[in-house]
Design goal:
Strand content: 25-35%
Structural class: alpha+beta
Largest sheet: 8 strands, mixed
Helix content: 25-40%
Number of strands: 19
Length: about 475
């Protein structure tokens, strides 16, 4: 493939694969995945500059990367991926985000779309009643500091022991629903206060619970391994670490601001303030981030229990009859210690994924045994009106992206712009015309999440597949959504 200039500052290296050559303070090049149209839309935003800024971080290896759902974020672009040498590199909250371990899970049923005819409104109403949603919304679970510390240390396993779900759910979660290295004492009292009554709540913004169905299967072996079939009803849960995770990020941004001066890691963009991974500040932040991640896994586990209750209530069937087996749970705002082959050498790195999904390929020992022949499920929610996707990780992704892929459609429009572009009446009418029932705690929150505010998820997925980061397994369509 020729290296012709594609857009200002970009060189084409492959299908949906472009390079920003290293210059100035950049230690490595930028590597961006996406179609011509997707990348053209980012001209004028800060996203490309943020890719370049990340390339200046001490200890970064190979490239500063961005997935096809790229858009401007805090420090890193959303869709940003960067691996840091574990001995020499830094860790930065700007590469993980405020909503630590914001992530998504998919559960499959034994019910067809036809069997749900006439019941979607009732199911959406039941979900909306059972699942607390909205900014600062508290749930029925009230925990003291000792109990929260157990959640922070043990993640989804704590929730299962309390009766929220089943042990087999843990086997189909990234990290089995609990990240090693978590240290509850690294989480501040303020973070505890914000999180003590929010476990089992959805939150606001782009968080959602969705009922949908499988429109088309593309890869039958992978679909069979995941338990997916055409017209099957599926349930999505998208949420994170709520106020606790947000406070952890806020706390450690302050710590990193001071640490950057201490260790000489100050960057032109102070949103990338960092500390060496091996430093006391770096280690403490990692342990707090891992604890917040475990809170998020516990949160999604409890939300899944409420989803199972709602579906059972509406259909008058047991969970055994309905199915509701967890396919997988993946994080997309997280820092992970992994080993990757870099220039022929297996190296220990800390991979920052900010709005990017882990996407391990076939044969990986880090994914459930029943998925190893086909690769890890990669869950890509779209918007509440069009479509979502299940992909599979590929053998090519380690060399391309440190086993990373897109995490969703990615915003195409700010929340402020979305509110100006569409009225709530028009949005509800459009969603009904698409056959989607929606409930939201606020009108403002609903229009901010209008489909027009997001990229076309089909184009994002096509770019991901063409770049070699994933392969299509199934396309899903929404039937009903609750939002915060």
């Amino acid at each position: 493939m020729s290296r012709e200039t594609f857009l200002p500052g970009l060189e084409r290296r492959g299908d949906c694969h472009y390079i920003i050559p290293a210059e100035g303070r950049m230690l490595v090049p930028g590597r961006i995945f996406g179609s011509h149209h997707i990348l053209q839309e980012q001209i004028g935003s800060k996203a490309f500059q943020q890719v370049k800024n990340v390339a200046c971080l001490p200890g970064i290896v190979e490239a500063s990367m961005a997935m096809p759902d790229i858009h401007e974020g805090y420090g890193f672009p959303i869709g940003g991926v960067a691996a840091m040498d574990f001995a020499q590199g830094v860790i930065t909250p700007g590469g993980i985000g405020y909503d630590i371990n914001c992530g998504v899970r998919v559960m499959v049923t034994e019910i067809s779309k036809e069997e749900m005819e006439g019941k979607i409104q009732a199911l959406v109403d039941s979900l909306f009643r059972l699942i607390p949603a909205g900014v600062g919304k508290e749930g029925p679970i009230k925990l003291n500091r000792k109990e929260i510390d157990q959640v922070l240390a043990r993640g989804a396993a704590w929730a299962v022991e309390q009766g929220y779900g089943f042990p087999e759910d843990l086997l189909r979660s990234e990290e089995n629903g609990a990240m090693a290295g978590a240290e509850p004492s690294a989480v501040s009292e303020r973070a505890f206060q914000r999180g003590k009554n929010e476990l089992g709540t959805l939150g606001s913004g782009n968080h959602f619970v969705e009922v949908g169905y499988v429109e088309r299967v593309y890869d039958q072996p992978a679909a069979s391994a995941y338990g997916i079939w055409p017209d099957q009803v599926v349930m999505w849960v998208h949420s994170g670490s709520r106020g606790l995770g947000h406070q952890v990020c806020s706390d450690y941004i302050g710590v990193m601001r001071r640490a950057a001066v201490t260790y000489g890691t100050v960057q032109p963009d102070r949103q990338l303030d960092s500390a060496p991974i091996s430093s006391p500040e770096g280690q403490t932040y990692f342990r707090a981030m891992a604890a917040a991640s475990n809170y998020a896994w516990a949160n999604r586990q409890i939300l899944s229990h409420y989803v199972r209750e709602a579906v059972g209530e509406v259909l008058g069937k047991s969970v055994t009859q309905i199915g509701l087996r967890l396919v997988y749970d993946v994080a997309h705002n997280i820092g992970k210690i992994e080993k990757h082959n870099i220039d022929g050498v297996l190296r220990k790195v800390l991979v920052h994924r900010k709005g990017a999904t882990r996407a391990f390929g076939p044969g990986s020992p880090d994914i459930p045994r029943e998925y190893r022949e086909v690769g890890q499920p990669v869950l890509v929610p779209g918007d509440m009106g069009r479509a979502s996707w299940v992909l599979a990780g590929t053998a090519a992704s380690p060399a391309l992206s440190f086993c990373s892929a897109c995490h969703g459609a990615g915003r195409a429009m700010s929340r402020t712009s979305a509110k100006k572009a569409v009225s709530v009446d028009d949005l509800k009418r459009d969603l009904l015309s698409m056959g989607v029932v929606v409930r939201s705690t606020t009108v403002k929150g609903l229009v901010e999440e209008a489909p027009l505010a997001y990229k076309d998820v089909d184009e994002v997925v096509d770019s991901t597949v063409r770049a070699g980061l994933g392969r299509k397994v199934a396309r899903l369509r929404p039937l009903g959504v609750i939002k915060g």
